[in-house]
Amino acid sequence: MIILGIDPGLRTTGFGVIEKQGNRLRYIASGTIKTGSEGALPPRLKVILAGVSEIVATYQPACAAIEKVFVNVNPQSTLLLGQARGAAITALVGADLDVAEYTPTQVKQAVVGTGKAVKAQVQDMVARLLQLPGLPGTDAADALGIAICHANTHDTLGLVGALAPANPKKPTLHMKRGRLV
Q1: Element at 138 (helix H, strand E)
Q2: What is the pLDDT of residues 125-154, one digit of tens each?
Q3: Backbone angles phi, psi at 111, to 5 degrees
Q4: Residues classed as catalytic
Q5: CB neighbours (10 Å) of residue 83?
């Protein structure tokens, strides 16, 4: 299964493509989509939309995962990040891909083992897990980390889904405060 991870950003959107075969992960590609820091917002969003669409067409992923927006101190920055994220999600769902969403803490937990990891730790662990010859850039490493998080979570979600009742009106499992109960 080929998985595309997206680390959205208005200036730089990271992407990472991996393949999961059984318990093994294999690196396929990673990089960034750069919009620059100048210019009007709509053309920059178009660059993100076109870039993600091109990546999907090139690598043909089975599914995608994207980082959830966190609230910055500056509400304007949060709004702009949300719009960049929206452009990326539009490209993904436009290609009929299922899109999973993970918080930065979930990604760090899945890749490094602690939700309080710093970017350098994520870069190092991504390089180790995918047996890369060097460290990827921070945006690409974050995107690869998102893909790794999904690769490890996807099977678990499938198992949980198999446990779900046939009658959705009488669920036996549900989420409470981020935990399955």
Answers
A1: helix 138-163
A2: 999 999 999 999 999 999 999 999 999 987
A3: -90, -45
A4: 7, 67, 139
A5: 17
